[in-house]
Design brief:
Elements (H helix, E strand, L loop, with lengths): L2 H23 L2 H29 L1
Helix pairs in contact: 1-2
Length: 57
């Protein structure tokens, strides 16, 4: 498993936490940062998946 997949998954989890906390306290900026972290994590996870596929080929 590529390190990008691990880091990407961690960013998704961090983003979900930020979104939840932002909604709870009513902080729209924190919510949007969380959404951005989730997207960035998903992209990085996908890049790691591609690297794994190439490496396994």
């Amino acid at each position: 498993m590529d390190k990008d997949r691990v880091i990407g998954s961690a960013k998704v989890v961090k983003g979900k936490a930020k979104v939840a906390i932002g909604k709870t306290i009513g902080d729209a900026k924190l919510e949007s940062e969380g959404e951005a972290d989730k997207v960035e994590g998903k992209v990085q996870n996908a890049v790691g998946g591609i690297k794994d596929t190439i490496r396994d080929a």
